[in-house]
């Protein structure tokens, strides 16, 4: 058994000690649902990037695999030629077994199914706010008060639907150029200009655009950081999937306002553990995740929105002091005769 996954053809089972040694960039094995795979070459072609799948080289990637792939049977077709065998001794700890049972429970509860009614209502509420942003200027004029009110409303709209689209695929040279993302971007900007240029003129429309982007960006930054700061983020030491995310995230208390204000990102723990679960179901799995954490002695932190914002300010203050310390010049005194 050597570099790059060379092995005895007759061997079909491997110990965890053997598997863990294959964690190099040019020699990658991992385990999914008790089966061992050599992903050394495949990792370079992995749609999600080589770093993502390579992160679990030498480890059990079952929970990460199930978290990011909805159609497991389809993905397994690609895994077949990569399979080396099975794990000789299944060293799954109870925490990993319990988490997989929890995921199975969530599937049985239908928590991975999308509610079209929820998203229809959500879309209607976005359209209503967008219309209000226009009517505010149309009926009350373009003075500072209606202008700033309209900007705030339009900024709220962007938190519900982000018009920024990924253009990385558009910039890649190939036989087929994906134009869907470009079409969405062009539609958004054309609609924006048609609505606001007649009311504000080109100069103030540009100001309006930049201003609501500031509102949108600041809002998004505070919401996302409220679930992570000042959580402890360490180097990966091969923690189980549950522990890995509980030490880097927290939840914000559930309320109608908090759910709306954060776009249900207040259930960040559940979002990390089950990234493909629709946001309207995250609160339903929270009690079960809490129970599992209590069983295994893992801290499950839930903050108020006010406390989460206060923690951001404390973290910024701490970072400022640390930055000042790094930039303070050191003065050396030497005795000269």
Can you walk me through this structure?
Mean pLDDT is 80; it is low at 1-9 and 162-175. With 337 residues, the protein is of the alpha/beta class. The relative contact order is 0.09. The protein is built from 14 helices and seven strands. Helix 7 packs across helix 9. Helices cover 56% and strands 7% of the residues. It is found in: Membrane. The chain crosses the membrane at residues 116-140, 182-209. It is a multi-pass membrane protein.
Q: Percent of residues in helical segments? A: 55-70%
Strand content: 5-15%
**SSE topology string:** EHEEEHHHEHHHHHHEHHHEH
Which geometry do the CA atoms define?
A: elongated
What structural keywords apply?
about 325 residues, alpha/beta, two-stranded parallel sheet, 14 helices, about 55% helix
Short description:
This protein is of the alpha/beta class and 337 residues long. The chain is built from 14 helices and seven strands.
What is this structure's SSE topology?
Blueprint: E1 13-14, H1 16-20, E2 23-24, E3 27-32, E4 35-38, H2 50-54, H3 62-68, H4 72-79, E5 83-87, H5 94-108, H6 116-140, H7 144-160, H8 168-171, H9 180-225, H10 241-246, E6 251-252, H11 256-262, H12 268-273, H13 282-295, E7 302-303, H14 305-327
Parallel strand pairs: 1-5, 6-7
Antiparallel strand pairs: 2-3, 3-4, 4-5
Helix pairs in contact: 5-13, 6-7, 7-9
Membrane topology: Multi-pass membrane protein
Main location: membrane
GO cellular component, one term: membrane
